[in-house]
């Protein structure tokens, strides 16, 4: 990861927040932005928000399975 954040690249669409971000991780063929990834890690598993994240991720893996 270097300092090329000056916006030549549009980035990728995060599957969680659905915003275009430049930094994040890839899960299967999908992209999770840095913010959501951090947030997910910090979210308690009992938090309803955590469930939301899991649902988003499930959708991704499901799509993988049927393709
Ligand atoms: Zn995101």
From TrEMBL:
<dbReference type="InterPro" id="IPR019700">
    <property type="entry name" value="Sigma-G_inhibitor_Gin"/>
</dbReference>
<protein>
    <submittedName>
        <fullName>Sigma factor G inhibitor Gin</fullName>
    </submittedName>
</protein>
<dbReference type="Pfam" id="PF10764">
    <property type="entry name" value="Gin"/>
</dbReference>
